[in-house]
Amino acid sequence: MRRNAIILAVIFFCTAGSSATEAYTAHDFHYSRFALEWNATSATWQGILRVFTDDLENALNHVNNSTVAWRLGDALEDEDADGHIATYASNGWTLIDSTGRAMEWTFVGKEVDFDITYIYLETAPTTAHGIKHVESHGFAELFKDQVNEISLTLFDRSLRLWLNEEDPVKPVEFRPDE
To answer: How many structural domains does the chain have?
Structure first.
């Protein structure tokens, strides 16, 4: 009888532990932050896109209609992860130039810090005021309440924009100092 109680206790604590882990990694807050800075030396916009790792893995599976175990940041990470991440980020977060065309991104790399993934992107050489609009549909296919913050820093000026499913495009207008 005591042996059965011990077995049941082990099963209970293992199950409770896995539920606690799932509850810890799951979140109800659907948000990304893309911080862009103008680099005058290279004449490029360079950015760090911060996303929840589990959202990114779910989005990659959604857009690829797959069930890949991406294992981002793990020694067993899928070998095609970087290419898929580059495509997803490039399509989900867009800078629009004065001609109405999307600027192309160069995927510089990524870092995974457990629940947050940092994606490094850079535009081709352009002009400092070449961005006319920002657009983001990142994770909108997964979450109706997704908010994508984009901040741009140009010399000593900065601009912070909030985009969502209802308002996915914003003009980039740096105001002169007052």
So the answer is: 1
Helix (H, G, I), strand (E, B) or coil at 4: helix
Examine residue 79 and state whether it is found in any structural domain, yes or no: yes
Q: What is the pLDDT of residues 107-117, one digit of tens each?
A: 999 999 989 99
**Residue 11 maps to a domain:** no
* Range of the structural domain that residue 152 is part of: 29-171
Structure tokens at 100: 């109405």
pTM exceeds 0.85, yes or no: no
> Tokens 């499913």 appear where?
165
Pick from 128, 115, 99, 136: nearest CA to 52:
115
Q: How far is the first Cα of the chain from the last one, in angstroms, to the nearest whole number? A: 79
Instruction: Assess if residue 19 is contained within a domain.
Output: no
Give the other-Cβ count within 10 Å of 151's Cβ.
16
- Provide long-range contacts, Cβ within 8 A and 24+ apart, for 68-73: 72/110, 72/112, 72/117, 73/111, 73/112, 73/113, 73/114, 73/117
Instruction: Say if 100 falls within a structural domain.
Output: yes
